[in-house]
Amino acid sequence: MSVVSACSDSPKALTGSKSDPSGSPSASQSDAKITASIPADATDVKVNRSLRLNVDGGTFQTVSVAGTSGELQGALAGDKLSWQSSGRLQPGETYRVRGVAVDQDGHQTVYRSKFSTQNLSMDQQTFPSFFPLPGATVGVGMPAIIRFDVPIENKASIEKHLHVTSVPAQPGAFHWVSDTEVHWRPQNYWQPGTKVTVNADIDSIPAGNGIFGQKSRTSSFTIGRSMISKVNTKTDQMRVFQDGKLVRTIPITTGQQPKYTTRSGVKVIVEKYRKKRMNSETVGIDPNGPDGYNIAGVEYAMRITYSGEFLHAAPWSVGSQGHANVSHGCTGMSTANAAWLYGQTLIGDVVEYSGTDKPMTLTNGIGDWNLPFDQYAAGSALS
C-alpha cells in the first residue's frame, strides 16, 4: 500500500509518497520529491487558484487531477519538472491529485492528495448573456453587448477575459455602460458582411466583492448590408441609404418643438414591432390629459430609444409629414413608407438625426456612436 504524503513546513510544499508502480513499498527509496501548490486536504479553496506540481530529484511520468465533473486540464513542462493546470477549478468540487515521478535510478515516487473548492451560491456567480443573439444578422451600428446578471465590481479582472474578434478585422474598444453591461464597438461602423465572434471566458474569474464568473460562453453574429437613414428635423425628410446609395427619401414628422423635441444624434434600431400599442403614460404623459394618447395597433414600429422614440406609421399626421413637426417625439410617416422601411430594416441599422439641440445620450438606447472613439475607448476598465 502507499505511504500517505506528509506536509512540509511550508503550506505550499507537499512531499510525495514513495512506492513502486504496483503501489507496494519500494525496496529502494526514490530521490524524487513532489510538491504541490495546494495543500492536501485543503478546503474552501478559491476557484481562481491554479494548481502546480513540481518535482526535485527526478522527472514526472504522469499527472492526473480528477474532479467531480471531470478532469482538470493541465500540461507537463518540456523538461518534465513541473505540471501546471490550464483548466479552471469549479465551485463545490473535490479534486483528487495523482502524480508519478522517477529519479535517475528509475525509483518511483507516487504523490496523492485531495482538496475541495469553495461552494458558491448563484448570488456569488455572474452569468454572461449576449446581444445580439447568437446567429443573428444585424445592421452596421450594432455593438457587441455582454450583460451580467450579478454586478461586476472588478471590471478590469473580467474585461481581461472578454474578447471580440471579427473577419475582416476592425479596430475597436470596450466601454462599460453600467456595472452589469459592457459594449464593444468598432472605431467606425462595421463593414458589411463582417463575421463577429464574442468570447466571455470568465469561468471562475474573480469579479470583485466575492463574485466569480459562472460560465464561459461564446457567441457569433453577422453584419448584413449597410443601411443608414438620415433624418433632418428641419426639412422633415428622411433619406435612406443602402450600401452608400440613396434608395428613398421619405417625408416625415418629428417631435413638436420645444415641448416634445426629438433628440439629435446617432440612434440604432433596437426593436421591431409589426403592431404596438402606444400609451403616453409610458413616457410620463397623462393619457387622459390634453396631450395624452393611447393608440392600439400602431403599425411598423421600430424603437430607437429606451425613452420611447420610434419610427412608425402615422396615418393621422400625413398632412404634416414633410412640412411640420407635430409628434410627441417619434418619427412618423405614411403607412406605405413605414411598411417599406420596416421590410428593409435590421436590428442594428443606423438612424442619424440632425436639426435639434436636444442630444441623444449613450445609454438611452444604443447610443454608442454619440461618443468620439477616444472617449468611448476611455470607458474600458483597461484603458
Automatic annotation (TrEMBL):
One of its GO terms (biological process) is peptidoglycan-protein cross-linking. Residues 227-354 form the L,D-TPase catalytic domain. Residues 16-33 have a biased composition (Low complexity). The active site is at 312 (proton donor/acceptor), 330 (nucleophile). Keywords: Acyltransferase, Cell membrane, Cell shape, Cell wall biogenesis/degradation, Lipoprotein, Membrane, Palmitate, Peptidoglycan synthesis, Signal, Transferase. Residues 1-33 are annotated as: Disordered. Pathway: Cell wall biogenesis; peptidoglycan biosynthesis; Glycan biosynthesis. The keyword Signal applies. Pfam families: Big_10, YkuD. One of its GO terms (cellular component) is extracellular region. GO terms for molecular function: acyltransferase activity; peptidoglycan L,D-transpeptidase activity. This is L,D-TPase catalytic domain-containing protein. It comes from Nocardioides pocheonensis.
